[in-house]
Amino acid sequence: MKEKKNPSIIAEGGVITLFVGIGISLLGYFAMGSFFKAAGFLVGIIGVGILIAGYLYPNTGKELTNAVEEYEKK
């Protein structure tokens, strides 16, 4: 069975992908030309999508159960 990833790990991957896209885009702007600008923009937009998915990704059932148990202890 495939294990679900932690949403913060997904968001971290989104940030990394976003900045890779920015780097590729800057490379295109300063050295390589419009193809790299466009490719960097595409990669950056994918990173933004992954970042948003990391924040919207629902918590696992175990995490929700632990949160409810912590609340009930108070």
Give the topology string: H per helix, E per strand: HHH
Number of self-contained structural domains: 1
Number of strand elements: 0
Shape: rod-shaped
Overall structural class, as computed from helix and strand content, comes to mainly alpha
Any key phrases for this structure?
single chain; 74 residues; mainly alpha; 3 helices; rod-shaped
Explain what you see.
This protein has 74 residues and is mostly helical. The protein has helices at 7-32, 34-56, 61-73. The chain has one domain (8-73). It is rod-shaped. The model has no long low-confidence stretch (mean pLDDT 82).
Q: Would you spell out the secondary-structure blueprint of this structure?
A:
Elements: H1 7-32, H2 34-56, H3 61-73
Short description:
The protein is an all-alpha fold.
